[in-house]
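Lecture 7 notes: from sequence to structure.

We start with a single chain of 203 residues. Read the sequence below before looking at the structure.
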Amino acid sequence: MTRQLQELGDHVAASLPQDVIATAVLQGELVVTVRREAVARVLGFLRDDPRCLFKLLADVCGVDYPDRAERFEIVYNLLSLKLNHRIRVKLAVDEEQAVPSVVSVYSAAGWYEREAWDLFGVYFSDHPDLRRLLTDYGFEGHPLRKDFPLTGYVEVRYDEDQKRVIYEPVRLTQEFRSFDFLSPWEGMNHVLPGDEKAKEEKP
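Now the structure, written as tokens:
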């Protein structure tokens, strides 16, 4: 299988030499890294080429690497039902750049791209309806970015006096939270199994 995937990767790279940056077989799956501007052309080739036939777009997702100049990777997972192959197509993008939408190639990409925009803040140009998908109206920020605080920026709760849901700024930032949970190993009055074998150090 690895040899077949390598041959397929070589075929894709030879067919699109200006668009494919690198190919590799990782953990039994073909990974193709492409130029951001060429993603729609590459996916169209992978869908229509007789040696590829990746007719199914299984997922589009984002990955955040804050230390990189182009901090985000957009990953497209494709499946060929006829040839029983999978392929992963990756591209790099920074916070200011836009990724061309591939809705014209795979209509299923519409919701996946909305999700990536909502959670990572990656903009997809020429998307027919790029709106938030999973977060609430008026939500600020993109919660799957590594620099997004775990507590978020807004607290949502139901106020019994006002009889409605209210939104308040988070009062305690994540950096200053302290968790004073009692350790399960503290406060025990009996010897736990195995502790009788421990020797006390002599002063």
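The beta strands are 20-26, 29-34, 56-64, 72-80, 85-93, 98-100, 123-125, 154-159, 164-169. Keep this in mind for problem set 3.
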